[in-house]
Amino acid sequence: MTSDMAFECLFVSRDPGVFGTMSPILRDLGISTDMCLTSAKAFNQLKTGQTDLVVIDWEGEDSRDLLQDIWKSARKKKPTIVAISSLDRPIPGAHVVLKKPVTAESSQKSLQAAYSRMLFEHRRHARFALMVSVKATDESRRNVSMTITDIGDGGLGLVTQAKLFVGDVLSFHVLLPGAIRKIYMQVRILWTRDFSRFGCEFLRIPPVDLNILNEWIKRKSEIKKPLIAV
Q: Among the four residues 83, 87, 212, 218, which has the most C-beta atoms within 10 Å?
Protein backbone atom coordinates (compact mmCIF):
# COMPACT_ATOMS: atom_id res chain seq x y z
CA MET A 1 0.00 0.00 0.00
CA THR A 2 1.49 3.33 -1.06
CA SER A 3 0.68 6.90 -0.09
CA ASP A 4 -1.86 7.26 -2.94
CA MET A 5 -3.75 4.10 -1.94
CA ALA A 6 -6.60 3.77 0.53
CA PHE A 7 -7.93 1.23 2.96
CA GLU A 8 -10.82 -0.82 1.54
CA CYS A 9 -14.16 -1.26 3.29
CA LEU A 10 -17.08 -3.61 2.69
CA PHE A 11 -20.29 -2.05 4.03
CA VAL A 12 -23.05 -4.62 4.69
CA SER A 13 -26.44 -2.94 5.10
CA ARG A 14 -29.91 -2.66 3.58
CA ASP A 15 -30.46 0.76 5.17
CA PRO A 16 -29.61 3.70 2.88
CA GLY A 17 -29.95 6.06 5.85
CA VAL A 18 -27.16 4.35 7.80
CA PHE A 19 -24.92 4.23 4.74
CA GLY A 20 -25.71 7.85 3.92
CA THR A 21 -24.65 8.95 7.40
CA MET A 22 -21.41 6.99 7.45
CA SER A 23 -20.18 7.15 3.85
CA PRO A 24 -18.97 10.81 4.01
CA ILE A 25 -16.91 9.95 7.10
CA LEU A 26 -15.42 6.90 5.38
CA ARG A 27 -14.57 9.12 2.42
CA ASP A 28 -12.94 11.73 4.67
CA LEU A 29 -10.85 8.98 6.24
CA GLY A 30 -9.62 8.04 2.78
CA ILE A 31 -11.37 4.65 2.90
CA SER A 32 -12.65 3.19 -0.37
CA THR A 33 -16.08 1.61 0.22
CA ASP A 34 -18.12 -1.11 -1.53
CA MET A 35 -21.76 -1.69 -0.60
CA CYS A 36 -23.30 -5.15 -0.07
CA LEU A 37 -26.96 -5.68 0.82
CA THR A 38 -26.77 -9.12 2.44
CA SER A 39 -24.40 -10.98 4.73
CA ALA A 40 -24.69 -14.08 2.53
CA LYS A 41 -23.16 -12.26 -0.43
CA ALA A 42 -20.66 -10.36 1.69
CA PHE A 43 -18.46 -13.33 2.56
CA ASN A 44 -18.07 -14.23 -1.13
CA GLN A 45 -16.91 -10.67 -1.79
CA LEU A 46 -14.41 -10.94 1.04
CA LYS A 47 -12.78 -13.95 -0.62
CA THR A 48 -11.52 -11.67 -3.38
CA GLY A 49 -9.44 -8.58 -2.75
CA GLN A 50 -7.85 -7.28 0.44
CA THR A 51 -10.68 -5.80 2.51
CA ASP A 52 -9.35 -3.93 5.56
CA LEU A 53 -12.67 -2.97 7.18
CA VAL A 54 -16.09 -4.65 7.35
CA VAL A 55 -19.03 -2.59 8.60
CA ILE A 56 -22.03 -4.81 9.46
CA ASP A 57 -25.49 -3.39 10.03
CA TRP A 58 -26.46 -6.09 12.53
CA GLU A 59 -29.41 -8.31 11.54
CA GLY A 60 -29.19 -11.21 13.97
CA GLU A 61 -28.34 -14.70 12.77
CA ASP A 62 -27.15 -13.78 9.26
CA SER A 63 -24.79 -11.15 10.63
CA ARG A 64 -23.54 -13.54 13.30
CA ASP A 65 -22.82 -16.17 10.62
CA LEU A 66 -20.85 -13.63 8.58
CA LEU A 67 -18.80 -12.66 11.63
CA GLN A 68 -18.02 -16.30 12.41
CA ASP A 69 -17.06 -17.00 8.78
CA ILE A 70 -14.63 -14.07 8.81
CA TRP A 71 -12.87 -15.35 11.94
CA LYS A 72 -12.80 -18.94 10.66
CA SER A 73 -11.34 -17.97 7.29
CA ALA A 74 -7.78 -18.99 6.41
CA ARG A 75 -6.79 -15.40 5.75
CA LYS A 76 -3.99 -14.53 8.17
CA LYS A 77 -4.74 -10.82 8.38
CA LYS A 78 -8.35 -10.43 9.46
CA PRO A 79 -10.25 -7.20 8.70
CA THR A 80 -11.28 -4.75 11.39
CA ILE A 81 -15.00 -5.21 12.09
CA VAL A 82 -17.51 -2.53 13.06
CA ALA A 83 -20.97 -3.75 14.08
CA ILE A 84 -23.91 -1.31 13.99
CA SER A 85 -26.41 -2.58 16.52
CA SER A 86 -29.47 -1.66 18.53
CA LEU A 87 -28.53 -4.29 21.12
CA ASP A 88 -27.37 -2.94 24.45
CA ARG A 89 -24.45 -5.37 24.79
CA PRO A 90 -21.07 -6.18 23.23
CA ILE A 91 -20.95 -8.28 20.06
CA PRO A 92 -18.27 -11.00 20.32
CA GLY A 93 -15.89 -10.77 17.37
CA ALA A 94 -16.57 -7.12 16.58
CA HIS A 95 -13.74 -4.70 17.31
CA VAL A 96 -16.04 -1.66 17.48
CA VAL A 97 -19.79 -1.54 18.20
CA LEU A 98 -21.73 1.51 17.00
CA LYS A 99 -25.03 1.96 18.80
CA LYS A 100 -28.21 2.81 16.90
CA PRO A 101 -29.60 5.30 16.14
CA VAL A 102 -26.53 6.24 14.11
CA THR A 103 -25.43 9.88 14.15
CA ALA A 104 -22.62 11.67 12.36
CA GLU A 105 -20.86 12.25 15.68
CA SER A 106 -21.08 8.64 16.91
CA SER A 107 -20.14 7.34 13.46
CA GLN A 108 -17.03 9.48 13.31
CA LYS A 109 -15.90 8.39 16.78
CA SER A 110 -16.40 4.69 15.95
CA LEU A 111 -14.74 4.89 12.54
CA GLN A 112 -11.77 6.80 13.94
CA ALA A 113 -11.25 3.97 16.45
CA ALA A 114 -11.51 1.43 13.63
CA TYR A 115 -9.08 3.43 11.49
CA SER A 116 -6.46 3.49 14.27
CA ARG A 117 -6.68 -0.29 14.56
CA MET A 118 -6.43 -0.76 10.78
CA LEU A 119 -3.34 1.41 10.68
CA PHE A 120 -1.71 -0.61 13.46
CA GLU A 121 -2.55 -3.92 11.77
CA HIS A 122 -1.35 -2.66 8.38
CA ARG A 123 2.04 -1.68 9.76
CA ARG A 124 2.32 -4.89 11.81
CA HIS A 125 1.71 -7.20 8.85
CA ALA A 126 3.29 -5.18 6.05
CA ARG A 127 6.38 -6.60 4.35
CA PHE A 128 8.48 -4.48 2.03
CA ALA A 129 10.66 -5.82 -0.77
CA LEU A 130 14.33 -5.01 -0.26
CA MET A 131 16.81 -7.21 -2.25
CA VAL A 132 19.92 -5.99 -0.43
CA SER A 133 23.07 -8.14 -0.20
CA VAL A 134 24.83 -8.24 3.18
CA LYS A 135 27.63 -10.11 4.92
CA ALA A 136 26.51 -11.69 8.19
CA THR A 137 28.21 -13.75 10.88
CA ASP A 138 26.65 -16.60 12.81
CA GLU A 139 27.30 -17.60 16.43
CA SER A 140 30.45 -19.50 15.47
CA ARG A 141 31.74 -16.39 13.65
CA ARG A 142 31.27 -18.04 10.25
CA ASN A 143 30.76 -15.53 7.42
CA VAL A 144 27.44 -15.86 5.62
CA SER A 145 26.68 -14.12 2.32
CA MET A 146 22.97 -13.51 1.94
CA THR A 147 20.34 -11.27 0.37
CA ILE A 148 17.56 -9.70 2.43
CA THR A 149 14.42 -10.06 0.28
CA ASP A 150 11.86 -8.30 2.49
CA ILE A 151 11.56 -6.64 5.86
CA GLY A 152 8.75 -5.65 8.20
CA ASP A 153 7.91 -4.69 11.75
CA GLY A 154 8.90 -8.00 13.37
CA GLY A 155 11.44 -9.59 11.09
CA LEU A 156 12.76 -10.19 7.60
CA GLY A 157 13.13 -12.74 4.83
CA LEU A 158 16.41 -13.75 3.23
CA VAL A 159 17.97 -16.09 0.71
CA THR A 160 21.40 -17.66 1.01
CA GLN A 161 23.26 -20.72 -0.24
CA ALA A 162 24.80 -21.20 3.21
CA LYS A 163 23.55 -24.05 5.38
CA LEU A 164 21.31 -22.55 8.03
CA PHE A 165 18.83 -24.09 10.44
CA VAL A 166 15.87 -22.96 12.53
CA GLY A 167 17.24 -21.31 15.67
CA ASP A 168 20.48 -20.07 14.09
CA VAL A 169 21.38 -16.48 14.99
CA LEU A 170 22.88 -14.05 12.46
CA SER A 171 24.37 -10.59 13.01
CA PHE A 172 24.96 -7.97 10.31
CA HIS A 173 24.78 -4.33 9.26
CA VAL A 174 22.40 -3.25 6.51
CA LEU A 175 21.74 0.02 4.69
CA LEU A 176 18.03 0.51 4.09
CA PRO A 177 17.26 2.40 0.86
CA GLY A 178 17.16 6.12 1.69
CA ALA A 179 18.36 5.66 5.28
CA ILE A 180 21.07 7.95 6.66
CA ARG A 181 23.41 5.11 7.64
CA LYS A 182 23.71 1.37 8.13
CA ILE A 183 21.92 -0.19 11.07
CA TYR A 184 22.91 -3.24 13.11
CA MET A 185 20.60 -6.24 13.44
CA GLN A 186 20.72 -9.60 15.16
CA VAL A 187 18.08 -12.04 13.91
CA ARG A 188 17.05 -15.64 14.59
CA ILE A 189 15.80 -18.03 11.90
CA LEU A 190 12.19 -19.09 12.46
CA TRP A 191 11.47 -21.11 9.32
CA THR A 192 13.00 -22.43 6.11
CA ARG A 193 11.50 -22.92 2.64
CA ASP A 194 12.55 -24.32 -0.72
CA PHE A 195 15.02 -22.41 -2.90
CA SER A 196 17.19 -21.43 0.11
CA ARG A 197 14.59 -19.05 1.57
CA PHE A 198 14.48 -18.27 5.30
CA GLY A 199 12.27 -16.24 7.62
CA CYS A 200 13.77 -14.48 10.64
CA GLU A 201 12.63 -12.60 13.74
CA PHE A 202 14.50 -9.66 15.20
CA LEU A 203 16.47 -10.51 18.33
CA ARG A 204 18.39 -7.32 19.00
CA ILE A 205 18.57 -3.90 17.37
CA PRO A 206 20.24 -1.00 19.22
CA PRO A 207 17.72 1.73 20.21
CA VAL A 208 19.06 4.35 17.79
CA ASP A 209 19.07 1.84 14.93
CA LEU A 210 15.57 0.67 15.88
CA ASN A 211 14.35 4.27 15.57
CA ILE A 212 15.82 4.42 12.05
CA LEU A 213 14.10 1.13 11.14
CA ASN A 214 10.75 2.22 12.60
CA GLU A 215 10.84 5.55 10.76
CA TRP A 216 11.74 3.76 7.52
CA ILE A 217 8.82 1.33 7.91
CA LYS A 218 6.49 4.21 8.80
CA ARG A 219 7.42 6.04 5.58
CA LYS A 220 7.03 2.90 3.48
CA SER A 221 3.62 2.08 4.99
CA GLU A 222 2.06 5.50 4.53
CA ILE A 223 -1.43 5.50 3.11
CA LYS A 224 -3.78 8.12 1.74
CA LYS A 225 -3.88 10.93 4.31
CA PRO A 226 -7.28 11.31 6.02
CA LEU A 227 -9.09 14.64 5.83
CA ILE A 228 -10.06 14.38 9.51
CA ALA A 229 -7.91 13.76 12.58
CA VAL A 230 -7.48 10.20 13.85
A: 83
